[in-house]
Amino acid sequence: MPSVRHKSAALAAVLCLVTAAPLALAQKAQLPDGPGKETTQRICGACHGAEIVIGRKMDKEGWTQLVISMVQRGAQGTDDEFSEIVDYLTANFSLDSKININKAVSKDFQTVLGISGELGDAIVQYRTDKGDFKSVDDLKKVPGIDAAKVETNRSKLTI
After folding, report:
1. What share of the chain is helix, strand, coil (3-state, %, to 5)?
2. Buried-most residue among 77, 83, 117, 120 (CB within 10 A)?
């Protein structure tokens, strides 16, 4: 029969895993720098992490509607702060914004290149293993990537 000490150690290990997983995810998902980042983190981050917007692409009207929805759900801030958040989200996560291939998460690659989650993960893993990409053309070195998708979407990619 396990002792109290063993049960406590097991419980501590489980708690570490449960709390470390969200922390690791939060550390990976970071908002890009720019005007409005701090306001977005302060107001939106009170309820959820950056991963909720990373990979989403909407126009200004879409971001406005999402922010209105969050206000209706209880988000606290001034009209000016909410306008700043919409401007920040539009500037960094609009349908026309570029993704930095050295900072993008799998979902970004899936959205912009129209690829599977598995291939998006493979790009991130390749970058992790080999280091930052030196050019957009380096994406073509990732096993399984369709070079034509890189070429077609080149205007949406940056380093």
Report:
1. 65, 5, 35
2. 120
Q: What is the pLDDT of residues 17-73, one digit of tens each?
A: 333 333 333 344 688 888 899 999 999 998 988 888 877 878 888 899 999 999 999
Two structure tokens written together for 8: 């406590």
Query: Which class for 57: exposed (0-12), middle (13-18), buried (19 or more C-beta within 10 A)?
Result: middle
Burial of 20 (0-12, 13-18, 19+ CB in 10 A): exposed
How far is it, in rounded angstroms, from Cα 134 to Cα 83? Answer: 36
Can you give the pTM of this predicted structure? 0.50
99-100 and 157-158 as β-strands: parallel, antiparallel, unpaired? parallel
The contacts of residue 99 (CB under 8 Å, 6+ apart) are 108, 109, 112, 156, 157, 158
Q: Residue 63 and residue 28: Cα distance in Å, rounded?
A: 23
